[in-house]
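=== RUN LOG ===
request id: a7f3
mode: sequence -> structure
chains: 1
length: 298
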Amino acid sequence: MSCLAVDENEFLQLLIAFDEMSSSSSDEEEQKERPRKRPFKHRKSKGVVMFRDDDGELKVLPPTMSLWYNMYCQTGCQERMSDFHSKFRRRFRLPYDQYRELVEMCTADSMKEDGTSLFKRWRPGKKAALTGKPAAPLELLVLTTLRYLGRGWTFDDLEECTAISEEVIRVFFHQFIKFGSTTLYNKYVGPPLTVEDAIDLCIREYEAAGFPGCVGSMDASHVEHQRISFKHRQAHLSFKLPFTSRTYNIVTSHRRKIFSTTDGHPARWNDKKLVRYDDMASTLHDGTNPLCNLIFEL
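=== RESULT ===
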């Protein structure tokens, strides 16, 4: 009797499965034959800035026709104004030649094929996979980062000047910060490795000022940081500033060459505590720095 009960159960399960398969196939056929009530939506070309051409047709303004591109990115733009370099230095906190060098470094990074590129999506000549439009120019994106850091503009302000969406500018900004903390930091920040380098870079200026044997000037620098959680607010309020900030201990030469810097720490920490995290100051104190062999006369 038990064998017959098992056979009946299996037969019922097969009937249920067959019924479900037939109903699902019929539903699929009905969906195929059923006409679509709403037509498919076609995406319209969206843009940040619009303009009218000679025929009066409203079109999307490409970034290569924006205000900043015509003023700063075109070849020979620095020859149009007599005070171009002084205005560029004041507006972007960087000389124009160094800006072009920075653009070349970002372009070289975008050409990497080893998977370590931070700017691959903005490679010159590359087009977006969905829209087929060319990527935003790196020249403009670097300008947006310099203005954001130098004058505290918002991404919405930069969108108006470059015809690049604020989301693209935001994504590029975070990639540029990562690029600056790795590639640019390793290239431009570093102490003298030998006594001869120290003499060429900094010793002569300090000897003229009456400080023979000095290799750098050290102090803490505060950088405003508003987005601090409430439980950490008191630790980031110093007695010097009315706002929350992070503090960095920096060693520089008289020629404004940065030798060493610490990570960000709470602004409430004083210089005596902060200097313990400075590698250059610690190695000079321990006697393990090559500059400890520097001989000078008082």
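=== NOTES ===
Strands lie at 50-52, 58-60, 217-224, 245-252, 258-261, 265-266.
Residues 2-33 form the longest helix (32 residues).
=== END ===
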